[in-house]
């Protein structure tokens, strides 16, 4: 299907606006976003590996993937809590949110290491 | 067709006969058994069972049992056994701490061995036993102490053993009795037993013979009544033996009918020896003797002792002495013209008083009636055997019950000896059965196609052939030595195929004539449609047939039609019965095939790939411009910050160690410790950071 020039331009314009809006986000949030992307991509690579070689030590596969996904989820939670524009968590100091993030990650990874086998 | 009166009465007689048979089976079943008196096999069993360990017995009680059994059976004691046992006897008698039970057993053994015990020692023991009688509370106390005193009385005539208060002692023993004739062991124990009753009778007889003054006659009268009461609870077996059994298990001593009956017989004979008139019916005495003879040769020493000791008491007792009628051989052969021999003796095998034995009746198996023969048997004094020269008329081969009666020559003896009226003994009469007129034939329809004569019970070699439309007929006649028809237990024809499949048929008879016809048309399916050569075997056998045989007759070549599709297969023949239990085929364990692992290069490639996003993350961080500006610079917060990061790093290293080699428990323990540290440090650091950013905000 050939995109009509109008839609092509619209897509470009949309992309550009998103990009510029994104650059306005504070750095710490960008760091967290980068971390999430890192975690999810690691998970994807593991899934591709499993697709190729089969899921023989299934527990290892699950622990690997769930570690990545889990830490991504926790990072998203951190982002929500740290984001200044989020009115719900106005009174929560970001250090506290970070401490929760660290603690939850440690517990997650204990379980993951146990399940890794 | 009119039924003649003779046939009519025959039919009636047959009906009555059948009813009589049914009734007779029950009555013939009872009291038909054979009892043998004590013999050499008992002696050899005694020698085997009572062998002392290292020259001495384990206890005086066992020593007494062994010595008494040897004495009754007439076996010589070894001198070293006597020395050892005498030492033990003397020791027990001189020990002040021996109770009446030990003294009793020691005195018993002394009575048999006649060890050297001084009169002074005996006097001392008498006074101890008399004290024991005064202080006795339970039946066994009385039994042992009175028994001991009685033994001393027998062993030494110089020592004074008479009891002063015999009446009182009797009354206290009698207080333990119960209304059903049984006795209790002590007033505190409500359980009564027959064995206790036997011990009580023995003890009371002892008291009566030890009494210094005459006993109250009424007491003795009640005692006689107690004995008769006890005999009401006697039990009976079908073969005519009587015995006593204890319902409850005894706390002391041997349990079971042997010990209970033995105790009662001892008590009974002891009591009878002290007083004249004790009226026990003679069939019960004979029944008790039969009970002890009926156990044959016991397998353990205690049972053998009970048997021998009781029989010796029965051998010469003052109530009535049982006489045993036995047959050395219960199988008589007509061919070798065996004579019927009968032995009559006492239970221990000693000779009986002069008597004559009559053969009263001969019952053939299953019939109740038999004519009374009243034949006297001839006595051979050299062998002490009564024999009959010829068997009565009409005694053909078969199973019979011979009824004998013992008649004592001297009528005085009738009261003294128990003969038991009619004694029934099972006897087998065997002989040679004539097999005549044996022939095998192949029939086509009803017409005989080929016939061969057979020589039975000799060797035969038939070679017949038949197809499925024909029949095979085998016939023969059986006659007893007296010419009567005979139906054996087994008359079987067996056909065995080459493959091993066998078929067995019963040969029916009518009177003397035995015949079987195998109609192959109907048997085709039974034979599994297997054609080929079948070996023929004929079995004719019976317990009373001396020439029972199982002979191969030859073979028949059978031509059967082919098996249809749905025919049953012949059963598989066991290849070899030994193979069934031989080793089976070896099973090689197949281990689970290990999962296919990917080639190492692929795994390493992906390891690298997985690390790529991490590197990309680091690069991205740098591009974003991360800095450590917020890291606290002053000393203490800095330390805490470093410790915080260090703590996290420690936890992560712990996790790696956990994956590599640690177990969960150590990990959790260490994690707990690091966690507490981390909490503290983290709290300090983060609160410091929070306060700095708050200051910045407010400023």
TrEMBL record, chain A:
This is Dolichyl-diphosphooligosaccharide--protein glycosyltransferase subunit DAD1. Pfam families: DAD (PF02109). InterPro entries: DAD/Ost2. Component of the oligosaccharyltransferase (OST) complex. GO terms for biological process: protein N-linked glycosylation. Subunit of the oligosaccharyl transferase (OST) complex that catalyzes the initial transfer of a defined glycan (Glc(3)Man(9)GlcNAc(2) in eukaryotes) from the lipid carrier dolichol-pyrophosphate to an asparagine residue within an Asn-X-Ser/Thr consensus motif in nascent polypeptide chains, the first step in protein N-glycosylation. N-glycosylation occurs cotranslationally and the complex associates with the Sec61 complex at the channel-forming translocon complex that mediates protein translocation across the endoplasmic reticulum (ER). All subunits are required for a maximal enzyme activity. The keyword Signal does not apply. Belongs to the DAD/OST2 family. GO terms for cellular component: oligosaccharyltransferase complex. The chain crosses the membrane at residues 32-52, 58-78, 98-116. It is a multi-pass membrane protein. Pathway: Protein modification; protein glycosylation. It is found in: Endoplasmic reticulum membrane. The keyword Hydrolase does not apply. Keywords: Apoptosis, Endoplasmic reticulum, Membrane, Transmembrane, Transmembrane helix.
UniProtKB/TrEMBL annotation, chain B:
It is a multi-pass membrane protein. Keywords: Endoplasmic reticulum, Membrane, Transmembrane, Transmembrane helix. It is found in: Endoplasmic reticulum membrane. Residues 438-558 form the Ribophorin II third domain. Its main location: endoplasmic reticulum. Residues 38-315 form the Ribophorin II N-terminal domain. Belongs to the SWP1 family. Component of the oligosaccharyltransferase (OST) complex. Subunit of the oligosaccharyl transferase (OST) complex that catalyzes the initial transfer of a defined glycan (Glc(3)Man(9)GlcNAc(2) in eukaryotes) from the lipid carrier dolichol-pyrophosphate to an asparagine residue within an Asn-X-Ser/Thr consensus motif in nascent polypeptide chains, the first step in protein N-glycosylation. N-glycosylation occurs cotranslationally and the complex associates with the Sec61 complex at the channel-forming translocon complex that mediates protein translocation across the endoplasmic reticulum (ER). All subunits are required for a maximal enzyme activity. This is Dolichyl-diphosphooligosaccharide--protein glycosyltransferase subunit 2.
